[in-house]
Amino acid sequence: MIHNPDQQTRKSNASVTRRRFCSTVAACIALTTAQRKIQAASGAGGISQADYRWLNVAMGGGGAIPGIVLHPKVPGLAYIHTDVGGCYRWDSADKRWIPLLDRIPFNQWNLYGVDSIAVDPNDVTGNTVYISTGKYADSWASPAGMVMKSADRGETWTRTTLSPTGGSNQSQGCGERLAVDPANGQHVVYASQLNGLFSSFDAAKTWDRMRAAPSGWSSQSASRKKRGHGLAFVVFDPSSGITGTPARTRIMYIGATGEGVYRSRDGGQSWQLLAGGPDWPRKGVIGTDGVLVVSHRRGVAKFAAGRWTNITPRTLKHGTSCAVAIDPSDSNHIVATLGLMNRIPVFRTTDGGKTWANVSGKRNETITWWAGWQWFSNPFSLAFDPHHKHRVWATDWYGTYCTDDVTRPEPVWTNFVAGIEELCIIGALTAPPTGRCRLYSGAADEGGGDHLSLTRPPRRSLWVKGLPAGLDRTGIAVASDDSNFVVCVGTINWSSPGTGAYSVNGGDSWTVFAKLPYKGIKGGRVVLTGNHRRILWVPQEGPPYYSDDLGQKWSKVKCHESLAGSSHGDNIFVYDQPVAVDAADANRVYILKGSKLFVSTDAGEHFAVAFTKAPADWNHKVLTSGQPGDVWLSGGTQGLFRSRNGGRAFARVSGVQAAYMFCFGKSPAGTNFPALFVQGEVEGIAGYFRSDDQGRSWVRIDIPMQRVGDAPNTMTGDWRVFGGVFVGTTGRGIFYGCPANSDQNI
User: Fold this and answer.
1) CA distance 420 to 95
2) Backbone phi, then psi, for 96, in 5-degree steps?
3) Per-residue 3-state assignment (H helix, E strand, C coil) for 174-209
4) Which residues of 581-592 are buried (b: 16+ CB within 10 A; e: fewer)?
5) In a 3-state reduction of DSSP, which class is residue 123?
6) Segments in 211-277 forming alpha helices (H)
7) C-alpha of 630 from chain center
8) 137, 144, 154: which is closest to 91 by C-alpha?
9) Where are the domains of the chain?
10) pLDDT above 90 coverage of the chain, percent
11) Cβ neighbours for 16, distance < 8 A, ≥ 6 positions apart
């Protein structure tokens, strides 16, 4: 999954992020400055804390996993890293993946991208692990990526001085850039995307640039180099012996994008280009006999006895070879993949690449919503299990796979994705108070889900239930008088024209609108007004339209001023909520555009200006509480605002310095006003908060465990469980939190 919105949108969103969060980086993530501050404030009688329990709403995979690393000396210990969703450790007993970066706070969202993992092969406890972080390498991404180290298998992390490291979401498909010297556990090497090769001889406490090494892209333009892969991998050859003081492995290899493969014979002091090799190396692996095998954009190559040999499988004709692995017990036993969809594209050789067999195998599907073409879709990595002969792991755009015996005539591949939640939510979460579904979601790449359960993945993909393939839902609405009637709108493949659809059975099946308001309409948001059957579509860039006949025909709303662009942006990575229906009067509709709030009293046919000084935040939101004329606006760093007279005048909610997301949820017992949730800054403290008395007092709900840190962008309240709240992220899926003492079924 390549969650990479265009540069202008990223810069705009990043500008908002920079305004939101300007904090110094703590040396250790386990306890942040913000956490200490809230603890001190609470102890002094400040904002109280609400103990919450959290879980990931189960989807099951759905994101790019560029790499997997298995520990050579600890059976069952494996790690994977994702482009935008952090890294995970394998729990072999429970057969699920454990997320390792959830303690990173949301003001440091860029660190959830991980472009490499390395274990220390000298550490027989398996406790030492390194990661290089950073979703994006651009200047607007904050904080810059860095190398981090854990001494407890990823439970806690210490940040090193090596930064910036590059962008994981700008360079999928390369090999591992981090490596620990098998001859010296204190010697750590990092092959960066942008700045060349670095080494440390004190277990990553200090770093030095290895200036004799290349950096990649030397012959390319500056702009291409900035976004290129730079150095693609680094590997040690343990069979080559030891040299130097401090001791280090004598022979090392690095892949330099646009240049080729380089070798050092003196532990990294000098480097030579290996002539005749691939100029676009992707991944490199070493056999126990010292033979180097490299996958590249045109196939697979082997370097042995001082020369290169093309060992690309002859049947590899329709894709880019990406992954390769060598059996640690037999260097002639190699597996490789190519970037094809619709089948299992794994090839195997037992004679060092002279002949190959296509290992098609069978599928053992643990996630039923995956379409057939999603299996082994653009495979990124392969790895032999050093403790289980012939067991092979693989990763791709959607998850991880494993076969216990790749040598069988038809090996069985199981997709192990329990615990991996990597969806990028795109502004669409709806939790109806009744009905079949607990939650409807919209997500990049996968469309989203109709969630019958929070703990079990959806049974079927949206795209096999009637929605067009590639449609990512950006807006969802459920009728308040009939939970079976649902509408959605979206955009196909991020930025192409979109469409919409409706369901009369709670999402069990969908019917696409017969017509569109206009050609080329994109995404945006949708609401149900009037008799809860009028569909009001507020698309991106264009003007709003409404339909009273399920999309058979559409009428443009009338207003003395243009409402085009109320939902801004030209792709799906937009998180505003510019339209809301008054929950107390479905004929009353609000649209927020820039600093102006428009109101309709005839279910969206006509709009007029109600207020002209609304906070003009990039991700502004308008919501209603269900009380007559009660309208709320979020203004980012300007705070939270409330109107009690239908939007004609607003007052800032005292104590809320910043409101980036907010929503309403089920009312506290004995009251008729919903619970109010805010993600932002209250009383000078950043976090997630809940108010049970219309904003007069607050409790912080995300202590003691830091959660929902991976670029949260969407929040909606649970109308079935008091205190329940859903938060959508840009890489860690959907989180659900509710009071720890809640006895209601979640």
Assistant:
1) 11
2) -150, 160
3) CCCCEEECCCCCCCEEEECCCCCEEEECCCCCCCEE
4) bbbeebbbbbbb
5) coil
6) 222-227
7) 35
8) 154
9) 61-168, 425-739
10) 74
11) 617, 618, 619, 636, 660
Amino acid at 413: W
For residue 36, the SS3 value is helix
The Cα 397–Cα 92 span in angstroms is 22
**pLDDT average, residue stretch 301-324:** 82
pLDDT digits (tens, 9 = 90+) for 18-61: 333 333 233 333 333 333 333 333 333 368 888 899 999 999 98
Q: What number of H helices and E strands is found in the chain?
A: 3, 58
What is the token pair recorded at 668? 């506290």
pLDDT at 569 over 90: no
The alpha carbon of residue 187 and the mean position of all alpha carbons in its chain are separated, in whole angstroms, by 31
* Measured distance CA(158)–CA(164) in Å, rounded: 15
Q: Give the integer Cα–Cα distance in Å for 242 and 254.
A: 18
Give the predicted TM-score (pTM) of the model. 0.91
The whole-number pLDDT of residue 353 equals 94
C-alpha to C-alpha distance for 641 and 635, rounded to whole angstroms: 8
Mean pLDDT, residues 222-242 taken together: 79
> What is the predicted pLDDT for the residue at 23?
31
Q: Would you say residue 315 has pLDDT above 60?
A: yes
Nearest to 501 by CA among 493, 131, 491: 491
Termini Cα distance of the chain: 29
Q: Specify the higher pLDDT residue, 382 or 14.
A: 382
- Determine the pLDDT at residue 321: 63
Instruction: Write out pLDDT tens, residues 5-14.
Output: 333 333 334 3
What is the percent of the chain with per-residue pLDDT over 70, rounded to a whole number? 89
Cross-strand bridge partners of residue 526: 537
Instruction: For residue 348, give the DSSP letter.
Output: E
**Two tokens, residue 193:** 């995307």
Q: What 3 state SS string does 619-646 have?
A: CCEEEECCCCCCEEEECECCCEEEECCC
Give pLDDT, residue 344.
67
- Please state the rounded mean pLDDT for residues 510-529: 96
If you search the block for the tokens 């995300």, which residue do you land on?
702
**Alpha carbons 587 and 635: distance in angstroms, whole number:** 25
Q: Look up residue 399 and give its two tokens.
A: 């998850």
Whether the link from the prior residue into 164 is cis, omega within 30° of 0, is yes
**Domain 425-739 = CATH 3.90.1150.10:** no
In this prediction, residue 707 carries a pLDDT of 72
Residues in the chain: 746
Amino acid in position 11: K
Give 28 or 563, the one with higher predicted confidence: 563
What's CA 1's distance to the chain center, in Å?
8
**E-strand stretches of 516-571:** 525-529, 534-538, 545-547, 555-556, 558-559
pLDDT value at residue 48: 86
Query: What phi, psi does 499 have (nearest 5°)?
Result: -160, -170
Helix (H) or strand (E) holding 126: none
Taking all residues of the chain, what is their mean pLDDT, rounded to a whole number? 88
Confidence class for position 320, pLDDT limits 50, 70, 90: low
For residue 309, the SS3 value is: strand
Residue with tokens 């443009």: 556
Question: CA distances (Å), 322 to each of 85, 116, 281, 422, in order?
Answer: 21, 16, 9, 21
Residue keyed to tokens 């003081």 = 245
- DSSP class of residue 497 equals -
Rounded CA Rg of the chain:
27
